Amino acid sequence: MMEFLHKRHARYFKFCMDSIPGEYTSLDTSRMTLLFYAVSGLDLLGQLDLVQDKQSVIEWVYRQQITSELCDGDLSRAGFRGSPANSSGAPLNQWDCSHVTMTYTALATLLVLGDDLSRVDRAALLSGLRALQLPDGSSLSSLHGGESDMRFVYCAAAVSYMLDDWSGMDREKTREYVLRSMRYDHGISQGPLLESHGGSTFCAVATLALMGELDSALTEQQRDGLVFWCLSRQGLGFNGRPNKQEDSCYTFWIGASLRLLDAYQFVRTDLLREFVYSTQDPITGGLSKWPGHGADPLHTYLGISGLSLAGQEGLKPIHAALNVSSDAVEVLRRAQARWRDLPPVKAVD
C-alpha cells in the first residue's frame, strides 16, 4: 500500500528554495509564487525550521515591494513584484509595476514566516488594487495590460482580506462579475460566457467567501448546482473539467471549493489519497500532475494543501479560502488587531 512521503516532500521544497530547477528559468519573473509554494509547503508539513534564515527570506520579499516612496506619487503601480528581474533599478520607470498575484503570494509568504506585516505600505497596495479593477468587475494582473479574469479577482480579494480593508475593490462589481461567470452546467468560468473550470470555480467561491457574501450572493439552486458540479469532478482524484484527466492540483481547487460550500463530507477521501499518492516521486519527493510524470512546485503544493483539507496525518490544517496554514492565519489576526488600533488607511485614485 502506498504511503505519504512526508520527509521526501520536505526535502523537495527545501531544494526548490535553495536552487530553482533549470526548467523554471522562464518563471523567474514569478519567483515570488515559487517561493510561496516552497515556504508554505514546508509550513504545512511542519518542517518550516528547514528554512534556517527566515529573516533573510523576509527581507528578500520586502525588497520586491513597490511602496509610495518608489512610486513618486503614482500609486497605481504599488504592490509587489515577482522578482528583482522586474525592476530596472530606476524608481520612475513606468514599466516597473506590481503584479496582483505576486502581491498575494508575497503577503502570504510573510505571514507563513511569522512576519507582522508592519512594513507593508497598506495604503499604497490598496491604491494599486483599485487601479487594476475594470468596469466589468474583473481585475487586471498588472497595470500595463495582461489578462483580466477570475484568477486576479481572487488575488485582489485575498489581498483586501489580508489587509483588512476593501477600499481597493468595488465589491458590488466583483460579486456581479462572479455571478455573470456562472455557467449552464453550474460551474464557474474565468469570465462571462467562458467554460466552467475547477480553478476559476475555486477563485470565484473563495472570493465570495472572503467578502463574506457566499451565503447571500448564491441562491440555494446555484449553491446546490455548484456542489453537484464539483462532486462530479471526482473519479479517483479530481479533474478540472468534464472529460478531462484527473490532476493533483485539483485536490485543492475542487476540494477547497467543496469545503467552502460546506460539502466536503461527500468527497471520497480514500480514493483521493490513493490518486495523490500515485503522483509522488519516490526519489526526489514532490508531486506531479499525473502519475509517472515529473514533480513540480505547483502540483506538489496544491496536492499537499488538498490533502490537508482531507485531514492527512502530519499536515497542519489549512484555511481553505486563503490557502495558508491555520498558524499563518493566527499571525494575520494579530496583525489585523494591531491595525485596528491605528488611524485607518484607504485606497486613493
From TrEMBL:
The UniProt entry, under Gene3D superfamilies, shows: 1.50.10.20
| UniProt enzyme class | transferase
The answer to whether the entry has keyword Repeat is: yes
Q: Where is the Prenyltransferase alpha-alpha toroid domain?
A: 4-324
What reactions does this protein catalyze?
Answer: geranylgeranyl diphosphate + L-cysteinyl-[protein] = S-geranylgeranyl-L-cysteinyl-[protein] + diphosphate
Keyword Metal-binding applies: yes
Pfam families named in the record: Prenyltrans
> What are its E.C. numbers?
2.5.1.59
InterPro entries assigned to the protein according to its UniProt record, in alphabetical order: GGTase_I_beta, PGGT1B-like, Prenyltrans, Terpenoid_cyclase/PrenylTrfase
Q: Name one GO cellular component term.
A: CAAX-protein geranylgeranyltransferase complex
Q: Name one GO molecular function term.
A: metal ion binding
Q: Which SUPFAM superfamilies match?
A: Terpenoid cyclases/Protein prenyltransferases
Task: State its cofactor.
Answer: Mg(2+); Zn(2+)
Going by the entry's taxonomy, the superkingdom of the source organism is recorded as: Eukaryota
**Listed transmembrane segments:** none
Q: Which UniProt keywords apply?
A: Magnesium, Metal-binding, Prenyltransferase, Repeat, Transferase, Zinc
The text of the family note is: Belongs to the protein prenyltransferase subunit beta family.
User: Quaternary structure per UniProt?
Assistant: Heterodimer of FNTA and PGGT1B. PGGT1B mediates interaction with substrate peptides.
Protein name (Swiss-Prot/TrEMBL): Geranylgeranyl transferase type-1 subunit beta
